[in-house]
Amino acid sequence: MGPDVATARLPREFYPRPAYEVAPDLLGCVIEHETADGLVAVELTEVEAYAGDADPASHAYRGKTARNAVMFGPPGHAYVYFTYGMHFCVNVVCGPPGVAVAVLLRAGRVIAGGDLARARRGGRRGVPDEPARAIADRDLARGPARLCQALAIDRDQNGADLCDPASPIWVRAQANAPSRAATAATIKAGPRVGVRMGAEIPWRFWTANDPTVSVYRPHASVGHGKAR
DNA sequence: TTGCCGATCTTCT
DNA sequence: GAAGATCGGCAAA
Description:
Layout lengths: L3 H4 L11 H8 L3 E6 L2 E14 L26 E6 L3 E8 L6 E12 L1 H9 L21 H8 L17 E4 L7 H5 L2 E4 L13 E4 L21
Antiparallel strand pairs: 1-2, 1-6, 2-5, 2-8, 3-4, 4-5, 7-8
The protein binds a DNA duplex (13 and 13 nucleotides) through β3, β4 and α4.
């Protein structure tokens, strides 16, 4: 249907910019992952910018470690991390090589491969053969861990090159994307979700009035990590 | 709808 | 040893 330009990956040059500039530009773009089970595509509706060693909320704030090494590498790659003992989250690495800035993909709308996404989201961890739960379309990729589950993103995708034509995972713009000016009018910005330090920086960007945007939650510092 | 709670384990202190 | 860029279930309003 669409011409090649509709499915072209975002070029490498899209990424080496400050994360707070790349982040809003990603809204409306589509992340796709092709596996043996099929293709799932998610139109991004919510993202967050993280600015490396200058940002106390970033995983890179205290320098390079084994976990965050990908963020210090070249732009246009996927930084996937495991958190809370059971969830994966995915970022796109931005900025020039060596500068650990990235954009966390927080939520989106599944626009292709809905059945596959629902099947992946249906079974609970450790509960095989459980029938798929009735998950609303809006909830398929509503949240960073849900988005990863719908797209089957895990450790194996950490470091994946989103710009390599041979890579099974990529990000593209939409053929019918509205003008930059029209898009800007529908973009909202506010504090990032679940962060403690740097909580006042408005680097969460989302599409206004979109049901697939996750609900805002402040950092759960108290009450977590219960004593014992 | 909001709010609390437990699950579960990697990473860094 | 503690905290964490989270989520789903359940209760209450």
